[in-house]
């Protein structure tokens, strides 16, 4: 026989808790880093709700597998994704629904600038650049330029985290569409005094560096811009790879700074990473050492890059790279 108290306990329901993920986009396309953030959010183990500030991606977003709903917010002030506008919006949406226990963003320029502001508004400590989900409140993140991993636990009522895209596979698109809900709640005045002036983008038919499966990177050993273009571009074309560079190559003007790989550039983890004339400074290794196969070409056998390389060519890059390109 079940007592009345037992019946009440048996029939009581557990409140539903949700994870909110910001679906960052460029134009009419969802950024691959945002899809990786969805994968990380799914591993937390709670229903995942997507948030977009672009009506152009609503249809794409609704087909992402693992999302239970999409919240869409419209407004010209969000078009350029200024952190000063996004952080107050995130705060309003999170506080409008007590079910949200986690808020996840990609560890992109937008995510890195908006999440600390949101943490200040909510008075909680964000967890940056997570590479693994241990549980719904415990995560792994790199420290000391990626030379060590820290396992951190949060006791905050709302957990804020940014996700390193290279550590999680992008969420796939399915056929079934989830609900798209237009946000109708209160939006606070941001008091923003920052003005968007302009944006200069380098367009290329090559794969996007942050999500490419193959990357050919050049370093200081290439000596000049002309050699960089003459050796790196043909090899990347043959491989169907994206082009990257070390900070030394970028600072020397060999290529645009959007191609920089490393702690202060892009964090990548492709299937194949070819490092040409790169010594392997700790800041560069922090951005690419998780690559599946690393090929290093350098005439100095004592360079640090050979310590992590799977395949190493100790030779003159001016001879090896053209020969390798011709044989592909």
UniProtKB/TrEMBL annotation:
It comes from the Eukaryota. Its cofactor is FAD. GO terms for molecular function: electron transfer activity; flavin adenine dinucleotide binding. Residues 19-194 form the Electron transfer flavoprotein alpha/beta-subunit N-terminal domain. Coiled coil: none annotated. Binds 1 FAD per dimer. Pfam families: ETF, ETF_alpha. This is Probable electron transfer flavoprotein subunit alpha. Keywords: Electron transport, FAD, Flavoprotein, Mitochondrion, Transport.
